[in-house]
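Comment on the following before class.
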Amino acid sequence: MSASRFRLKEDVDKAYTVQTRSAIEGGIRGTAIGVGLTIITHYSWPFFRRQTFQFKGFLVCTCTVFGVVLGAERALQQYEARRRQEENEIRKEARIDLNHRGIIPTETAIAKWRASRPPVDAEDRE
């Protein structure tokens, strides 16, 4: 497996982990909001009090799914933005270094430059 494929697989696995964790947190938050709103509405609005338990459960489930989807999507977008920024920083560093050596920074040259350097984790950069 080439280094770029290995890096891509690691990136996909990390994105999946981030998205899953945030989806669970969003689902818990959405469930809490749904249950809270259902209880408040049940005791404050007589029309809602007459609704069936199944309908109220449906509303709580809707809030839960909404929380799962929004939590996962928000986390994935933040992760992708962070990865894009890291990639742009690496490419900028490669272009500067290659220009100092008198090499035109093409995609091939940047890939060779990246392969010649030891891999740096995102945690080490910060």
About this structure: Helices lie at 3-44, 46-49, 53-100, 107-116, 122-125. The mean pLDDT is 89.
